[in-house]
Amino acid sequence: MSVPLDDLAAPAPARASSRRLPLPLSPGRAARRAAVVLPLLAVGAWAAADWRAFRDGAARLASADPAWLLAAGGFTCLGWVAAACVRQGAVPDRLPPGLLLASQFAAGAANHVLPASVGAHAVTLRFLRRQGVPLHRATASLALYSLVKPLAKTPVLLAVLLVFPDVLRLGALLPDRRTLLLAGGCVVLCPVAAVLVVALVRPLRGPVRSFLRTAMTDVRRLHRRPARVLALWGGAAVAPLLQAGVVASVGAAFGLPLTWAQVTFAFLAAGTAMGAVPAPGGIGPVDAALLFGLVGYGAPMALATATVIGYRVLTVWVPLLPGAVVLSVLVQRGAL
């Protein structure tokens, strides 16, 4: 059988190379890789900027009572469980408990880097979207979460006053008149400004109406389900008490001469007065108000300062790197 000359002259087909050329990196993959690395970079930058505070706080904690520090760590862990309960109570959809708790642990790391809870809300919003919750309903759940937390704190504060009326020292704890007027003005003017912006900017009216309609529908649905009501309002009421338990446990580890009721009221008053200030994780204004309250009850300045610093080390610095790692893992696995 003869073979055509053209076939003999034709070069042999090149073998497929076993080495594949790397595919160009798509913008989505590049953004995902950046999202995995950015939390760790943010933690490193913040650690470099505030290393002295962490070092001093860790040195103070090394000389404290380890049993009380272990109790403070337990209250800190329960705080993430309470946050997960509130998040579940703010959305009608059932969320996977393990991933929800992991997302709140990761959200804590993001919350301490960005101001006004922006980091925690961004992580939670992404988590809800990945769980199939529509954007408008996920946004409404974030608004409900932000509204319920301060509303639930008020009856807790009043309950502490009713059970322990001796903790109220108006002269020592309340700020001066100028600060009260400034805080009251912000509380009144912010909603008025928001209403005026919506009324004057016509393109905002439609989205705002749709958002309010969705939010009210979900609120009615949630409050017809006792389990959601308990998770939402119960978790929001327990969360500040757990944080106060961290402060009281750290104070007991240092020998702070105050009762748990006094420390709890000082913490709740500090969070109520300065919690609206847009600082990362409330660090700064809340710390100053808490220190002012502890000293107002008669605690020595050195012990009060050590208590506040120890509280921040346990609730911010110790979980920060693990939280950033969990955040990166959740992004890498597509949960965020």
* Series of secondary-structure elements, N-terminal to C-terminal: HHHHHHHHHHHHHH
Summarize the amount of helix as a percent range.
over 70%
Instruction: Determine the structural class based on helices, strands and strand pairing.
Output: mainly alpha
Q: Biggest β-sheet: count, sense, barrel?
A: none
C-alpha geometry: globular
Gap between N and C termini, in Å?
Answer: 65 Å
**How large is the radius of gyration?**
26 Å
Average pLDDT figure: 76
Q: What's the total count of β strands? A: 0
Strand content: under 5%
Total count of helical runs of at least 4 residues: 14
List segments where confidence is low: pLDDT < 50 over at least 5 consecutive residues.
12-18
Structural notes for this entry:
- By secondary structure, this protein is mainly alpha-helical.
- Helices cover about 75% and strands about 0% of the residues.
Q: Could you outline the blueprint of secondary structure elements for this entry?
A:
Elements: H1 5-9, H2 27-49, H3 51-62, H4 66-89, H5 97-111, H6 118-130, H7 135-163, H8 170-173, H9 177-200, H10 205-222, H11 226-254, H12 260-274, H13 285-296, H14 301-332
Helix pairs in contact: 2-14, 3-14, 4-5, 4-11, 5-6, 5-14, 6-7, 7-10, 7-11, 7-12, 11-12, 11-14, 12-13, 13-14
Characteristics:
mainly alpha; about 325 residues; globular
Question: What's a concise summary of this model?
Answer:
The protein has 336 residues and is an all-alpha fold. It is built from 14 helices and no strands.
